[in-house]
Design goal:
single chain; about 60 residues; mainly alpha; elongated
Length: about 60
């Protein structure tokens, strides 16, 4: 499983747990973890400008 797939699976799991109406402490922890997953996903995704450069070079 790739890093991207692992992060997406973790994000889906965290979102599922948030839908179960956790208590305030657990909700805060889940939201903090989601922020970390989103940051990691952002670092893996190419920036929009990078995509345009790749298309232009082909």
């Amino acid at each position: 499983m790739t890093s991207l797939a692992k992060l997406l699976a973790q994000k889906q799991q965290l979102l599922g747990r948030l839908e179960e109406d956790p208590g305030p402490n657990e909700r805060a922890e889940l939201e903090r973890l989601l922020e970390r997953v989103d940051a990691a996903l952002s670092s893996l995704e190419p920036a929009p400008g990078d995509l345009a450069e790749d298309d232009a070079s082909r």
